[in-house]
Amino acid sequence: MRQAIVTKFLGPTNFRGSRVKATASAGSVTVSWSHALNSQQNHDAAAKALAVKLDWKGAWFAGGMPDETGNVYVWSADGFDEGFRV
Fold it and tell me: Coil, strand or helix: which one is 69?
């Protein structure tokens, strides 16, 4: 079943540095923030880590969340599944 991946920035605590959490119904991963990457690349890396963990192959399309708390990634096994056209 296809599922979206949602990423969220987690700020630093007294014990851990900044991180990005990628979540789907099938599971989640949390990756450390890389200062060598920009914000978009850090969210992409977290989403990719979850896709690899779940063995979800195919093309991924990214977009920002309406509340600007992270990104959402939608999977297409064929490279592009058109849901609708306007």
Answer: coil
pTM: 0.86
Q: Give the tens place of pLDDT for each residue, 57-75.
A: 888 889 999 998 899 999 8
Q: What is the DSSP string of 1-28?
A: ----EEEEEE---SS---EEEEEETTEE
> Within a domain: residue 36?
yes
Which residues lie below 8 Å from residue 72, measured CB to CB, with a gap of 6+? Answer: 4, 5, 6, 7, 62, 63, 64, 65
Residues in the chain: 86
80, amino acid identity? F
For the chain, how many structural domains are there in total?
1
